[in-house]
Amino acid sequence: MMFWPQLEKRLGSYWYAEALLGLLLMYLALLTIFSARLHVPDPYRAAMAGRGGGMVGWALAQLSLMYLGTLPTWALLLTMLVGGGYLIYLYTPLRLLTVPGVSLTWIEPQPPAEMAQPPQPQKRPAPKKTPRKREKTPGKTARPERSSPTKKKRPAQKAGADKKARRKGQRGASSRKKTTQKAPQRPMSSALPPLSLLHQADEGDAPHEQAQIMAKIIEETLASFDIPARIVQINVGPTVTQFGVQPGTYEKNGQKVRVRISKIVALADDLALALAASPVRMEAPVPGEPYIGIEVPNPEPTLVSLRGVLEADGFREVDSPLAIPLGRDVSGEAVVADLHKLPHLLIAGATGSGKSVAMNAIISGLLFNNTPEQVKMVMVDPKRVEFPGYNGIPHLLAPVVTDPEQASGALSWLLVEMDERYRKFSEAGVRNIGGYNEKLPPEQRLPYIVMFVDELADLMMTSPEVIEAKLVRLAQMARATGIHLVIATQRPSVDVVTGLIKANFPARLAFAVSSQIDSRVILDEPGAEKLLGRGDGIFMAPDSPQLRRIQGCFVSDGEIQALVGWWQSQTPRQPHDPTAARFPWTDMMVAEANADDLFYMAVETVRGRQSISASALQRMMNIGYPKAARLIEELMEEGVIGPEVDKRTGHPVLIEE
């Protein structure tokens, strides 16, 4: 074994040191069998003459028969033969052979920790040079490139740290080198919950060898349709594997002509049939890359845990209190967004596609990284089943809203809060919440406010014009004040996600939808109808035209309950005041309702009269002059009265008795 690193460079990436152990076991077993089956008067002289298994076989046979007996000896020899053959099969290129009619999932072995060698510094990629790590596959061969010994996987290795390092080093390419440079970690505080509240799920290892086999099938299928192409990139993700297909050239009238992209895209159904996988999604071309992306579902999807994303370097690099975890992309890299830069997020998808789980993951990510003094939340859940479990955490400005009418009051309260913050910014001479908080001590700083709406369709059914107007005004103006919206809907139709709402929500997360029309409503292009569901989504960032396919984070109900319980244990329970309003916007809703009642009373008051003035309306309704003048303006806007013609007569009444 001490010479194995030198032998490994010559044998290639499919040969492992365990194969030598298997060969040695078989060799010793055969020597012993040959000596045990040699029936001669003097076995020692026959072994000296080179007969049977030689001196080694004679010694092993005599010792095993003397101390074990005949039956145990033959059982041991048979076990050595079978075990040695299995090691040779598992740790050599023999494992790439396919058996007709049998579906096998190959697990690539991994060397022990003592054989691991750190990657060479000159081959290490820069941490921020490219966001996606990929596997290079030269030409049409199905054999992966040679990698350092740290990239082999061994099933017997179970340590959690080794699994995480193996997962980061293996994901996407066998030739990828692990980077030892780590992003600066955020300072941990005792005021924040520990990540140990989340389960450390084993996200598994990607089937790289199956990806190589599928790459060969794709090339052969395209060649059968007279389309020269080669696989230049393989990205193995949690749910799908993306194959980068580079179109080739062919001769036409004595000139070399490149294959048109449309010819490859038109063969999506044929590729799905050849790969026995559906649906197959085409990304033609991949933005910023010289190839077409063919996304094929993995036979067994991999779970993306919330803890794995929160511990990723990409999440630590986002220096913002509003960093939200979204999942992992097709290359296995963590996808993280800054809600302050988005500045609002629209989530859409059919029932059971993963919207509510994504909302819970975003909320949990904010709760793990922010104190109640940094971030406040308003939650609206008309379905009454998703968000009520968060009641009692100190981050909530009010209990979870389950009544659509109260949701309208919450939007009105946020509009008033937005105007009040803009007034404070104007007095302080700053432009946004960041500049305002820098001038104040920590205990007087304004917190960010994030509003979560789990079902927009229910709100739009109650009063669509009012809800749309409030949402649009918040989305247009609330970013600088630190107020952000995260809205989800299971019906992405034009009457729910209107044009004004889409225009003010540039960041969108689409999960599986039922039709291409719904995909165009949420993404402005098809693609979401071919998603697999259960967290498989497409993220559209506002600062990039590239659509990223992601697998959303999963957070279980038990993890949410543990997180909520931790925050409740850190917050002293306040005594219940029966006289206090449940929601901070209750008085505002009462004032709005009274204002509407006054308007209808004014309409009935002027009905039947020829003219009306503000002073006359004041005397008839027994109200103050400013309120009467405001009612006169509202009556003019609604067309109840006309403009003033003569100051002595006032405004003419336009409605009949």
Write the layout of secondary structure elements.
Layout lengths: L3 H8 L5 H20 L6 H6 L5 H14 L2 H21 L44 E2 L23 H11 L37 H17 L4 E8 L3 E8 L1 E4 L2 E4 L2 H5 L2 H8 L5 E3 L8 E6 L8 H5 L2 H5 L5 E7 L4 E5 L6 E4 L6 H15 L5 E6 L23 H25 L4 H6 L9 E6 L2 H7 L1 H14 L5 E7 L9 H5 L3 E5 L4 H8 L12 E5 L6 E6 L4 H14 L15 H21 L4 E2 L1 H8 L3 H13 L13 E2 L5
Helix pairs in contact: 2-4, 2-5, 7-9, 13-16, 15-16, 21-22
Can you describe this structure?
The chain is α+β, with helices and mostly antiparallel strands and 657 residues long. The chain folds into four domains: 4-96, no CATH class; 131-150 and 160-175 and 195-303, Threonyl-tRNA Synthetase, Chain A, domain 2 (2-Layer Sandwich), CATH 3.30.980.40; 339-570, 3-Layer(aba) Sandwich (Rossmann fold); 586-652, Winged helix-like DNA-binding domain superfamily/Winged helix DNA-binding domain (Arc Repressor Mutant, subunit A, Orthogonal Bundle). 39% of the residues lie in helices and 14% in strands. The chain has 22 helices and 18 strands. The chain has helices at residues 4-11, 17-36, 43-48, 54-67, 70-90, 160-170, 208-224, 261-265, 268-275, 306-310, 313-317, 355-369, 404-428, 433-438, 456-462, 464-477, 499-503, 516-523, 557-570, 586-606, 614-621, 625-637; strands at 135-136, 229-236, 240-247, 249-252, 255-258, 281-283, 292-297, 323-329, 334-338, 345-348, 375-380, 448-453, 483-489, 507-511, 536-540, 547-552, 611-612, 651-652. Strands 9-8-16-15-14-10-13-12-11 form a nine-stranded mixed sheet. Helix 13 (404-428) packs parallel to helix 16 (464-477). It is elongated, with a radius of gyration of 35 Å. The chain starts with a helix and ends in a 5-residue tail after the last strand.
